[in-house]
């Protein structure tokens, strides 16, 4: 009888722990930049949404879209309550600063996350960079061009993966504008993710809308990026085209992202 009671007690405790509802917290407007000017202090802030009663979780650093000229930091609603942390990043805009400076802001936000996520219960070994449109471009630039993070004493090898929603793979149109070029003058230079394809880049998830509905050439750019990565020997890159969806294809993409996060943590 005593053994039976003990068994029931252990079973009750196990089921209680298993059914415990995950609790989430959100902390807003954390400054991550070392720049002391007013504009940097205004824009270079993050919000962090994380599970309070879970440890060693995945953290997705999420860069918003807006052409590198607008927008605001965001934590996508669909990704809430999914057992992961999300760091929503704000950054400076063109023309107030150059595109290289914006990429630098993104790198500073990644540095902050690596240095502080353990304080919230997260794992520095499970950090993913991602975003939509201009935010996806920033993610690819950080993950493919080693310099931005290495300048901050972070190796791109430390990144679990890159989640890119409808990024530019050629030079971003805002960077081209800085040189007097239009969006219909495609360029591949040091401000293009394509320029930095390499075998040893982190795992990469590329998702775009329908090629006939997307912004100028986005699907084709991503298809070429995937092909070039494969040609140099990269073995963990996937591309999804969401038929029937235009540039605002984030909802159908979020479930694919969550599934890929699971795959990356199993490897």
TrEMBL record:
Transmembrane segments: none annotated. Pfam families: BD-FAE. PANTHER family: AB HYDROLASE SUPERFAMILY PROTEIN C4A8.06C (PTHR48081), CARBOXYLESTERASE (PTHR48081:SF9). The lineage of its organism: Bacteria, Pseudomonadati, Bacteroidota, Sphingobacteriia, Sphingobacteriales. Gene3D superfamilies: alpha/beta hydrolase (3.40.50.1820). The keyword Hydrolase applies. Residues 46-147 form the BD-FAE-like domain. InterPro entries: AB_hydrolase_fold, BD-FAE-like_dom, GDXG_lipolytic_enzyme. Keywords: Hydrolase, Signal. Residues 1-19 form the signal peptide. This is Lipase.
């Amino acid at each position: 009888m005593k053994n039976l009671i003990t068994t029931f007690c252990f079973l009750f405790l196990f089921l209680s722990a298993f059914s415990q509802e995950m609790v989430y917290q959100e902390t807003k407007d954390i400054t991550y930049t070392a720049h002391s000017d007013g504009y940097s202090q205004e824009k270079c802030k993050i919000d962090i949404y994380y599970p309070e009663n879970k440890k060693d979780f995945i953290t997705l650093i999420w860069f918003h879209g807006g052409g590198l000229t607008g927008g605001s930091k965001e934590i996508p609603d669909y990704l809430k309550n999914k057992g992961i942390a999300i760091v929503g990043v704000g950054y400076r805009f063109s023309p107030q600063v150059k595109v290289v400076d914006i990429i630098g802001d993104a790198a500073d936000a990644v540095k902050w996350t690596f240095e502080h996520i353990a304080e919230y219960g997260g794992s520095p070994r499970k950090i993913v960079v991602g975003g939509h449109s201009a935010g996806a471009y920033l993610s690819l630039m950080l993950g493919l061009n080693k310099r931005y993070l290495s300048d901050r004493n972070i190796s791109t090898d430390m990144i679990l993966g890159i989640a890119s929603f409808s990024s530019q793979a050629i030079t971003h149109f805002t960077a081209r504008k800085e040189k007097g070029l239009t969006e219909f003058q495609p360029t591949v230079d040091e401000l293009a993710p394509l320029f930095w394809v390499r075998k040893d880049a982190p795992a990469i998830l590329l998702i775009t809308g329908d090629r006939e509905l997307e912004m100028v050439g986005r699907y084709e750019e991503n298809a070429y990026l995937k092909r070039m990565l494969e040609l140099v020997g990269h073995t963990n890159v996937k591309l999804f085209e969401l038929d029937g969806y235009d540039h605002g294809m984030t909802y159908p993409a979020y479930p694919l992202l969550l599934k890929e996060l699971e795959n990356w943590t199993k490897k």
